[in-house]
Every structure is written in structure tokens, then in C-alpha cells.
Amino acid sequence: MTVVTVGVQIVDVLARPVESIPSGQDTHLLEQIRITAAGAAAGTAVALAKIGVPVATMGAVGDDELGDFLLMIMARHGVDVSGVVRRTGEQTAASILPIRPDGGRPSFHVPGANLGLSTADLDAGRLTAAKLVHLGGMDVTWGLHDPEFYALLGKAREGGTIVTLDLLSNLPDLMPAVRAFLPHVDYLLPNEEQALMLSGAATPEEAAAALLGDGPKGVIVTRGSEGSLVATAGGVTAVPALDVPVVDTTGCGDAYCAGFAAGLLRGRDVLGAARLGTAAAARVAGGLGSDAGLDGPLDD
Questions:
Q1: In this structure, how many other beta carbons lie within 10 angstroms of the beta carbon of residue 23?
Q2: What three-state secondary structure class fits 298?
Q3: What residues does each domain of the chain span?
Q4: What kind of architecture, by CATH, is found in domain 3-18+32-285?
Q5: Where are the beta strands (DSSP E) in 161-207?
Q6: Dihedrals φ, ψ of 229, to 5°?
Q7: DSSP string of 7-63?
Q8: pLDDT tens for the chain, residues 1 to 300
Q9: Cβ of 261: how many Cβ atoms within 10 Å?
Q10: Cβ–Cβ contacts within 10 Å for residue 128, how many?
């Protein structure tokens, strides 16, 4: 595979538009309900597959019906799921997302089998053979906070593999341990809130510069409607978001990571890859779910 995504695998159940939770046994009629593959590894893998990049994913799901669905839908989109392990008696991670009319997305979440993913679950040979490895959700895959996994990333990078890293949560208690990954990755792609928590900085520009000092070649801070900041040794550059009608922001970060990875694989520089990530995120924002709008080749 050209890309291997490693980490969080989630089933999302999305409904829109939701203005309030009905009281008692009341029912509100909605325009749309979808169930999709999501999470910082699974969602990014589907986005990559839908824009034509060969991709495999590695992670953990339960032996339940949700796991059956997640593997089926990823495979249907063209993702190689043979590296996903199944945990007997565990639940597959899942979220219920009531999408507000403005595209906002509060969530109800069960972390499930993701928490137990470990280095022993991964196919080291396939990982080191990839052109790019995307780490998705290392803040919650605690079993990969492991010197053996860091060494595996080092071996992959020595062989020419690009390593990118995205996070899943905005939970302050999970941020400090993430910094141990930074010497082992090429590009970090946090959102603004995550970048500020990771660094302790006061502004996203200061956060990007501080995190760059931990080892990555580049830090790309995504900022929703404000676009993104790209920090490299050459400085910090703002990349504006595209002006599109927003239906649902679910999966925009995963799509950005997919577009960014595709850009790097096409030989673009970091700014060019960030613009392709921006285009992917804009497509996803226009529909419901983390894979909306990503049918066919991507261009900015």
C-alpha cells in the first residue's frame, strides 16, 4: 500500500439537523441520518481511498455487529482492512453525532477496542514498506505509547517512509504524552485547541513554532473556518480556508490529513500539500459524514 493509517477506528451515526434533544418520548423528524466509517485512522483511510490513493489501515475493533459494519464499509470504499484486529468480547468504538443546523457536532462516544491497540497488533513489515504512515489518534491509543513502536517508526523513516500524526480528542490530560511521538514523526497536524494544549503557548503561531522544536519537519495547525497555519524551519504561513456552505464539520480534520498526505505523495511542497488538504476538508464540510463529497480525484 502507498499509505498505511494506524490508530483509531470508529463507527459514526450522524443525524441532521438537530436543534434540541426531544423530551420524554417525543420524536423530532430530521432530514438525514447516516452511518459511516470514522476516526483519525479509519476516516482518513476512507478519505484517501475515495480520492484514489491506495491505502491500508491498522487498528482494533470488537467482534460485534458494529465491527462487521466498519470493516465492510471500509472495504467497500477500497481500504485494505486486513491489518485490523478483532477483540473478542469488546465493543467497536462508536459515536452518536447530532449535527446542529450550523454544522456543529456535539457527540456521545464509546472508545471501545481502540484503547487496547498495541505494537504487537501491527504488521511491522507492511508499515515499514509504506510510502507514508499516518498515525491517527495517538492520544487515545495508549498501547502505542511504547518505545518498541517508536523504534518501528524510526526504522520506517530510515527507509524513506513519511510519518504524519493527527489527534482525536481535545482532552487536556491526554496531551502531554503525545509529545513523546514528535521526535518520531515528520508532520504533526493538530487542530488549534490541541496545539495550544500540547504546547502551553498563547497563540496558534507560537504553538506551531514550539511544537516544531520537538522534532517534526512541519507542524500544520488546522483552524476550521480560519484555515490553517503551516510551520516549517522557514517560518509560519497562513493558508486560508475555502468559502463553502457548511453542512457538517465531522471528518474535516481527517479529510485535511488525507489531502495533505496525497499532496506529499504527489511531490508537492508542504504549502502545496496543505492547500490540497484544505480542498479536501471543504468538500467534506458540504455534506453529512466524514466521507461526504470525496468522490474522485482531488485538486485545489
A1: 6
A2: coil
A3: 3-18+32-285
A4: 3-Layer(aba) Sandwich (3.40)
A5: 162-166, 187-188
A6: -115, 135
A7: E--EEEEEEE--SSPPPTT-----SEEEEEEESTTHHHHHHHHHTT--EEEEEEEES
A8: 699 999 999 999 989 899 888 888 899 899 889 899 999 999 999 999 999 999 999 999 999 999 999 999 999 999 999 999 999 999 999 999 998 988 787 889 999 999 999 999 999 999 999 999 999 999 999 999 999 999 999 999 999 999 999 999 888 888 888 999 999 999 999 999 999 999 999 999 999 999 999 999 999 999 988 999 999 999 999 999 888 888 877 778 899 999 999 999 999 999 999 999 999 999 888 877 667 777 766 776
A9: 31
A10: 19
Name the grid cell of 126: 507492511
Query: pTM higher than 0.85 for the full model?
Result: yes
Q: Which helix (H) or strand (E) holds 238?
A: strand 235-239
Enter the C-alpha cell of residue 273. Answer: 500539500
Query: What are phi and psi for residue 133, nearest 5 degrees?
Result: -115, 125
Q: Which H or E run includes 85?
A: strand 80-87
Distance, first Cα to last Cα, the chain: 24
Query: How many alpha carbons lie under 13 Å from residue 55 in its C-beta half-sphere?
Result: 30
Contact (CB, 8 A) for 5 and 261: no
Of the candidates 206, 159, 150, 215, the residue with the CA atom closest to the CA atom of residue 186: 215
Neighbouring CB atoms inside 10 A of 158's CB total 9
